[in-house]
Design brief:
alpha/beta, Four Helix Bundle (Hemerythrin (Met), subunit A), Rossmann fold, 8-stranded mixed sheet, 12 helices, elongated
Length: 317
C-alpha cells in the first residue's frame, strides 16, 4: 500500500502546504546545492545532505539515523542517482516518523470513557500556549463537546486576560482567580465546576517558567495532586506546547519539561512563519512522545491534528 495515497481534506492540506512553504523552500534550495553537479549518491553527497538536515533543524541524532538508512540503501544499490534522493528521503523520514507516533490522533477526538477529559497544558511563555488552548477549545466545541477552561497560569495577569479573550471568542466558560493565586487552587475549582456542569473536556493552562526547574516540577506535581482529589486519574493528557520557529531551542524546552513532569503529547506551533519546520521530525523522533497538533497559521482553524503522512507529503510536494 502506498502510504501517501490517502485522501486528505483539500482545504486542510492547502493550509498545511502553505504553512510549510518557507521550510520547504529553504530545505530544497540547500538540497539542490548539496547535489549540484552530482549524478549519483556518493560520500560527498551524503556529507552535504547531513549538513542540510542539521541546518534545517532536524537535529543531529535524527539526521544521523536518516543518513544511516540512506547509506544502507546506497550500499545495496551502488548507482543510486541523485534524482532519486527526494523519493528516498521522503520514504525514510516517513518510516522514521512511523516508528514514533504510536497511537497517532486522527482527529480532535477524546476517549469516551473519561468524563471530564482533563488536559493540562504546559510550555514556556510566548510559545503560543494560550492560542493553542483557545483553538483546541474551539475544535472540541465544534464537535458538540462541553468545554471548560482553567486559568492556572496565575504568575502573569496577561495570561489570565488572554485566556479570557479566547473563552469569550469561543464562548466557553472559564474559571479564574486573581494574579498570584495558588495555581493548584484554580485547577481544583475548574474541575469542581466542570463536574457540576457535566462538562466533557477541561483544559488547564499552567505557568511557563523554566528558570527554576525544581519550582516548576513542584508546582506541576501539586496541580496534578489537587486535581486528582476531584477526578482521580486527572490529568489524562499533559500537552507540551513548543514554538517550532525557535528550532533547536524547542528541543531544549522539550528536554527540560520532560524532566520536570510527565509529558504525554506535543503541539508544535508557528510552523507557518519559519523555515525550521524540520524540528517536528527531530522532536517526534528524539522524544518518542506523539506530536498531536501542529500550528500552521493564525486562523482559528489553523491548529491541525498532526498526520505524519500529510506532513511528509507537504514537505516533499
Amino acid at each position: 500500500m502506498n502510504l501517501f495515497k490517502k485522501i486528505f481534506s483539500s482545504e486542510k492540506k492547502e493550509t498545511l502546504d502553505k504553512g510549510l512553504e518557507k521550510t520547504k523552500t529553504s530545505f530544497f534550495s540547500k538540497l539542490s546545492k548539496a547535489v549540484a553537479g552530482k549524478s549519483k549518491v556518493d560520500d560527498e553527497v551524503l556529507d552535504n545532505l547531513e549538513e542540510v538536515l542539521v541546518s534545517s533543524d532536524v537535529g543531529v541524532n535524527t539526521t544521523l539515523k536518516i543518513i544511516e538508512r540512506i547509506e544502507e540503501r546506497v550500499s545495496k544499490d551502488k548507482y543510486l542517482g541523485t534524482d532519486e534522493l527526494n523519493r528516498i528521503l521522503r520514504e525514510e523520514i516517513a518510516g522514521l516518523l512511523s516508528e514514533t507516533n504510536i497511537g497517532e490522533a486522527t482527529d480532535f477526538s477524546i476517549p469516551s470513557d473519561k468524563k471530564p477529559y482533563v488536559i493540562m497544558v504546559v510550555g514556556v511563555n510566548g510559545v503560543g500556549k494560550t492560542t493553542t488552548i483557545g483553538k483546541l477549545a474551539y475544535q472540541f466545541k465544534k464537535q458538540g463537546k462541553k468545554v471548560v477552561l482553567g486559568a492556572a497560569d496565575t504568575f502573569r495577569a496577561a495570561a489570565i486576560d488572554q485566556l479570557q479573550v479566547w473563552a469569550d471568542r469561543v464562548e466557553v466558560p472559564i474559571v479564574k482567580q486573581q494574579m498570584g493565586s495558588d495555581p493548584a487552587s484554580v485547577a481544583f475549582d475548574t474541575l469542581k465546576s466542570a463536574v457540576n456542569q457535566d462538562a466533557d473536556v477541561v483544559i488547564i493552562d499552567t505557568a511557563g517558567r523554566l528558570h527554576n526547574k525544581v519550582n516548576l516540577m513542584n508546582e506541576l506535581t501539586k496541580v496534578k495532586r489537587v486535581m486528582q482529589k476531584v477526578v482521580d486519574d486527572a490529568p489524562h493528557d499533559v500537552l507540551l506546547v513548543l514554538d517550532g520557529s525557535t528550532g533547536q531551542n524547542a528541543f531544549e524546552q522539550a528536554k527540560q519539561f520532560t524532566k520536570a513532569t510527565e509529558v504525554t503529547s506535543l503541539a508544535v506551533t508557528k510552523l507557518d512563519g519559519t523555515a525550521k519546520g524540520g524540528v517536528v521530525i527531530g522532536i517526534s523522533d528524539q522524544f518518542r512522545i506523539p506530536v498531536k497538533y501542529i500550528g500552521v497559521g493564525e486562523g482559528i482553524e489553523d491548529l491541525q491534528v498532526f498526520n505524519k503522512y500529510e506532513f511528509v507529503d507537504s514537505f516533499f510536494k
